[in-house]
């Protein structure tokens, strides 16, 4: 095989100088991007900053003078995307230890919601309730499950959203469930007869209440003596005396408040204190179900990845709103995973023989949690 000889050294000195200059010029061009390229980079950076600022600005801040919770749920119901992905249960799901160990994505996302209802019913300690009030019923998924389980009971679901109440009613008719009704009622000012329910069920409605104490007391007012109250709610971490949230945590919480029309959160311990201080609750019991429920957040986003088409065909406005929801869901996942938030489960029983007008010294006692 013939050898290839290099003739570089045979170049004359001026030729070598020209070659070196050419190489240096080429290197300079590579290391010095063109003004056009710099312009593109700057434009993309500015766009990224602008998009981040938009996404960091909450879109549904709670308005105490003009509460917008009902309107937000009206919008979600009309769009149909939330129901498409989450089914007729707009609450977190339940994942057992074994299911989490095997990988939460293996579980049917909507089945996780139905499992949560079963677990919450067991948690409630209610035995064969005859009159059930579902506070914050959404599109009625839980109400219909309870109505089917307790066929001799009457179930009433309430919501601030007329669209949800109408959808819940239609779904009940489609499913042939006749022992549940749905009404547009303010949970802070209920119009039912006092003590007319023996199970008051509140799943993820307390988050939207601007007065948590009135919320709890109003549910107790509806509860018959001997009846049970069960609350499932997103809670912020309880603070010991002298403790405060860091500035970073305050910012995280404020975004969680503002993006989904929440006035504020409280801790599950504070719910317990409110129940105890009411003088109308006994056997108050608290649990943290964060491990069992936190997979829901990322599972929700994965469900959208596997089946994106309903969003794809909705157009740019829905694309933008969906991006916001994905980011919010991830923020929720991190807040719960990092201990800033907890999934609070609270139950209690109204003492037998005590009417809503009774006054008790129990409210002056130090809270004791079973």
From TrEMBL:
Pfam families xrefs: Methyltransf_31 (PF13847)
Bias type Polar residues, positions: 351-370
UniProt record, GO biological process: alkaloid metabolic process; methylation
Domain Methyltransferase residues, every copy: 130-277
PROSITE patterns, alphabetized: SAM_GTMT (PS51581)
Gene Ontology MF, one: methyltransferase activity
Region span, SAM motif II: 195-203
Region of interest called Disordered, as start-end residue ranges on this chain: 349-370
Domain of life: Eukaryota
Keyword terms, alphabetized: Alkaloid metabolism, Methyltransferase, S-adenosyl-L-methionine, Transferase
Keyword ATP-binding appears in the UniProt entry: no
Chain positions covered by the region annotation SAM motif I: 132-141
Pathway: Alkaloid biosynthesis
Record has tRNA processing as a keyword: no
Region annotation SAM motif III: where it falls in the sequence: 222-231
InterPro entries: Erg6_SMT_methyltransf, Methyltranfer_dom, PiNMT-like, SAM-dependent_MTases_sf
Family classification: Belongs to the class I-like SAM-binding methyltransferase superfamily. gTMT family.
Name of this chain's protein: Methyltransferase domain-containing protein
Organism: Symbiochloris irregularis
Taxonomic lineage from the root: Eukaryota, Viridiplantae, Chlorophyta, core chlorophytes, Trebouxiophyceae
